[in-house]
Design a protein that fits this description.
Number of strands: 5
Order of helices and strands: HHHEHHEHEHEEHH
Largest sheet: 5 strands, mixed
Shape: globular
CATH class: Alpha Beta
Structural class: alpha/beta
Strand order of the largest sheet: 2-1-3-5-4
CATH superfamily: Uracil-DNA glycosylase-like domain
Number of domains: 1
Helix content: 25-40%
Length: 258
């Protein structure tokens, strides 16, 4: 149920309550993204993302860093959602688009292109022509965290954005692919709150995990798939190989079309 305007908590973007107060009021994905990019609710993350944008890496010294929360990317009527972790300090935090300009994104977008879900295999900057086909990519934490490790408080503060995004995608959403255990743990309570029924005990993350969540209201289920995160470490150690990633994405695409 939508809140009456008299029940809203007046907040500014630097108030920790800002996501919880602002996200539910977004009527469209575009509205939500617009509110999200102004968020300053987590002081540590704000300080870090802006510090990185000042110090920069030598390879990117000519870049004007985005240095704001990074919204999701992809169509608002997607049948598949991919949930990662958070923007990379010199990737999404630099380019303003999730998984863009960093090694993990290079692997992910090349794989999406290989299975027919992206228009091109590379992602370098906003406006590079990349388009996703039936897929929206998002994250549970929208600001780059130090050492790629958001705190549980930061995750929970940011949670309303993910909750609203999935709610807005709900009419078309058929499959959610979660990259890594952090994203899995962040996504489960959001999905439960949104009305999908989780089995008991709660499903555990694993590469190739596949759980069908029931929707008591519509009778239409949601497929939840686990995939190792395409991080440099996972690729270097072959914890995740390109064929393994392709396999999960192909399965997800097939399920989304059923």
């Amino acid at each position: 149920m939508r809140r009456n305007h008299r029940d809203r908590v007046p907040t500014t973007p630097d108030d920790p309550r800002y996501p919880a107060a602002s996200a539910p009021d977004a009527e469209t994905v575009a509205d939500m993204d617009s509110a999200l990019v102004g968020c300053r609710a987590c002081p540590r993350l704000v300080a870090w993302r802006e510090h990185v944008a000042t110090v920069k890496r030598s390879a990117f010294r000519e870049w004007d860093y985005w240095a704001k929360p990074v919204p999701g990317f992809g169509p608002a009527d997607a049948r598949m959602a991919i949930i990662g972790l958070a923007p990379a300090a010199h990737g999404g935090n630099r380019t303003g688009r999730i998984f863009t300009g960093d090694p993990s994104g290079a692997v992910l977008y090349a794989a999406l292109h290989a299975v027919g879900l992206a228009s091109q295999p590379t992602a370098t900057h906003r406006g590079d022509g990349l388009a996703l086909r039936g897929v929206r990519i998002t994250v549970p934490v929208h600001c780059a965290p130090p050492d790629n490790r958001p705190t549980t408080v930061e995750r929970d503060t940011c949670r309303p954005w993910l909750a609203r995004e999935l709610a807005l995608l709900r009419p078309t959403l058929r499959v959610v692919v979660v990259l890594g255990g952090f994203g899995w743990q962040a996504a489960l309570p959001v999905l439960a709150t949104a009305g999908w029924s989780l089995p008991r005990p709660r499903p555990r993350f694993g590469h190739g995990a596949h759980v069908r969540l029931a929707d008591p209201r519509t009778g239409r289920g949601l497929h939840l798939l686990g995939c190792y995160h395409p991080s440099q470490r996972n690729i270097a150690t072959r914890t995740l190989t390109i064929p393994m990633l392709h396999d999960v994405l192909r399965r997800a695409a097939h399920l989304a079309e059923q």
